[in-house]
Amino acid sequence: MSSIIELAPPTTRTTVIVGLKIRYDYREGTGKPIVFLHATGFNKAVWYEVVKHLENPVYLFDTPGHGQSEHPNDEFQWDRTAHWLAEIIDTLGIKNALGVGHSMGGQLMLSIAHDHPAAFDQLLLLDPVVLHENALQFLQSMTDHPVARRRNEWESSEELNEVFSGKAPFISWDQQVLIDYCNQALKPVAKDSGYSLACTPSLEACVYRNLGSDLLLDKIRDINTSTQIIRARAKRKDDHPLSFEFSPTRDDLVELLPNATDEQLTDWNHFFPMEKPEWLARRIKELLGSH
Question: How many domains does the chain have?
Fold first, then answer.
């Protein structure tokens, strides 16, 4: 029996922060509102296959520089981005919501929860990029991250989907999730000149290069929001340091947060939210029901 909720699909809206147009999808519903933040390089559309199983009001944000949201340049600053999103959430009057964040979105959720504690009374962090010092130092030492060399000329979202569906890490994604992502992953370069990635390769590389700060760890220790962490499988000896096959999350994050639980998935990789959207929707329902 299908668990799809017969509600109208989310509609795209625009808000402005420091002169930048930020796009988000909103859908009315019943119960606690849920805010979703995606991973580096992606967009709000990766959540469509999740929210169609939920009856709650939902807010799906394109992080600045991703999807249809603007960014002033190719210099990504984590604290500034979290501040912008927190201001938008506050302006929209979102309170006592469930915040769901994957990877980059998970770390941003923590910063927002610290700076605007009224916004969330629950957090679900899916493999948040809160790293151990050695992993941070490795990323910050890279002057040429591989994502900076990502192909950036495309004829259409259909071509993007065709190419991505046959290569890692996208090959294991839910097919519709990948289609949804690709449909919002490009922006026109010029009239009749094709498309480029909405999140530019240089901005994506900067996200990784600027990852992490002592300030974040100081914030974490003061976050009393009820938090559930779900991590991908543990790193193995033969895993490449930049592989997405294992969890990047520091294994002691649950101990740093005052009110958190932790679960590690045995065999799933970092992109499990895109591979198992219906499973994730069930976990969200369980979390809401337990609070």
Answer: 1
